[in-house]
# Entry
Amino acid sequence: MPEAPMLEIRGLDAFYGEAQALRGVDLTVAEGEVVTLVGRNGAGKTTLLRSVMGLHRQVTGELLFEGRDIVRTPAHKRARAGLGWVQDDRGVYASLTVEENLLLPPVVSDRAWALDKVYEAFPVLADRRRAGGTTLSGGEQQMLAIARVLRTGARMLLLDEPTEGLAPVIVRQIGDIIRQVKESGGTVLLIEQNVKFAATVADRHYLLAQGSVVESLDNAEFSARQAELLQHLGM
Amino acid sequence: MNEVLQYTIQGLAAGSFYALSALGLAIIFGVLGVVNFAHGACYMLGAVVAAVLLDTVGLGFWPALLVVPLIMFAFGVLIERTLVRWLLALDPLYNFLLTFGLTLLLVDLVKRRYGVSGLPYERPDVLRGQIELGALRLPTYQVFVFVFSLLVCVLVWMLMTRTRIGMIVRASTERSDLAQALGINVGRWVTPVFGFGIALAGLAGVLAAPFRAITADMGSNFIIILFAVVVIGGLGSILGAVVAGFLVGLVEAFGQAYAPTFAQILIFVLMAVVVLVRPAGLFGREETAR
# Structure
C-alpha cells in the first residue's frame, strides 16, 4: 500500500472477563477502501468492531487510526476523531425525533452532509422528521442510522450488519449508499453475513473464525470462492 | 363543591413538592443510573437552609427561591465529585447504599445542630390569606405553590425537549454507551445533572418551608412517597414524574379528607395497581424499566 493505512490493527486481543474473544487480530483498511468482516456467529466480528469504536474496552494490542494509537482513547473521542458508528440494532433513539437523532452527534469534519443533503438523499426521513425515532420501520431506521453518521462527516464508517433482517429492496438501497460513500472517498469497515451482498460493495474481505483472522481475500478471490465460503458460514 | 375544590388545591400544592423532587430524582436516575436515596434529605436541607438564612442573615422567601437551589446545586456537585462518582462503575446498589448512609448522616447532623422541635418560618405577607374568586375562597399560598411549581416543571420540560442539552440528556438516559459512540461526552454531563436534580429537591424544600413543619425528619416519610411517585410515573420518565407527583398529592389530600386512616395506604394501593397494569409505570418505556 502506497500510503499509511487509515486503520491498522496489530495483535489485538479482546476478553470478556476470563474468556478470550479475539486472538492476535491483524487488519488494515486503507483510505477509500470498503472492507468486510465475514465469519460465523461468535467468530468475534462484533467484538472486533466494538473494540475499534471503543465500546469494548477489555483489549490489548495496537489500534491505530490515521497513525494514532487509540487503544486507550474513550469512545466519544474516537467518534470526534472521525469514526462513525452504526450499531447492529440500528441504535435509533425512541425518545428523540428523527431530526433530533440526526442532529445528536457533533459534526467532526468538513465532509459532513448538510441536513438538506441528508433529506434529499433520504426523502422518507424528511417526511417523518418530527416523528419519534423508533416509529420508523426497520429499514427506515437503518437509513436513519447511516444518515446520522454521514451528517457528522465521519471519515470511516463502522457498520455492524447493516442489511440484517431487511427486505431485498432496502438491502439494494443500502448497497447504493455504501457505493456512493466509497465514490466520494469515504472508508467503510462493515460486518456482513450476506456473501453476495458483500461482493457487490467491498474491495476486500477478512474471514474470521474463533477470534482470529484466518484469511484475507480480495474481491475476485472472494467471488470465486463464494460456494466454499457459504459452506464455511453454514448457509 | 367548595370543599372538593379546597382539597384539590391542597392536593396540588402537596403534589408540587412531589413533582419537583421526583423530577430531580428522575433526571438523576436517567443519566447516572443512581437511585438517590438522599433526595428526601436534600428536600429537608432546602427547607432548613431557607429557615437558617432567614434567621441569621435575614434572607427573605423570594430571594431564597433562587439562592437556596444554587446552594443545593453546589452541594450536589460536591457530593457527586467526592462520593457518588467513585461508585458509578460498580453495581448501582452501592450508590443506593451510599446515599442511604448520607441521609442518616444529614438528618442526624441537622438534629444535633437545630434540635427536633422544628424551625419557624413565616410566609411573606402577600402569600397569606385567601384569594376570593366570586364565591370561591382559596388559600393564597397553596395556589402560589402550585402555579410556581407548574411553571418550573414547564421550564424544565422545555429545557429537556427544546434544547441541545435536553437532547443529550434524553439520549444519555436512553442509551449511554451509544451516545458515547456518537461522540457525546456523557461523563461531562454527570456532575451538572446531579447538581440540578439536587437543586430541584432543594427548591421543593424552600416552597415547603412556610407550609410544613421544618424538622430534620421531614424528608424521611417524603422519600418513601417519592419512590412511589417515581414508580407510578415510570422510572426515568420526566413527564411521568411530574404527572404522578401531582396525582399522588391529590390522592393524599382526598384520602386525608375522606378516609384519614387510609390516606397513606391509598398511595401504595395506587402504586400496586399501576405496576400490575403497566409494569413500566404510566409514562415509562419497557426498556428503561430493566
